[in-house]
Amino acid sequence: MRGRWAAGIVPRNFSWIIQDRLAVSERPGGYARNHRKVRRQEELLWLRAQHFDRVVSLLGSSHNLHAYDELGLTWAHFPIPNTADITAPLTALYPSMYVWLRAGERLLLHQDELGDQLMGIIAGYLLWSALIPDGPRAITATEQLLKRQMGAVGRRIAALAGELPPPGRLKPPPPPVVPVVAPPEPPEHLTKEPHES
Question: In this structure, what CATH number is given to the domain that contains residue 50?
Answer without folding.
Answer: 3.90.190.10
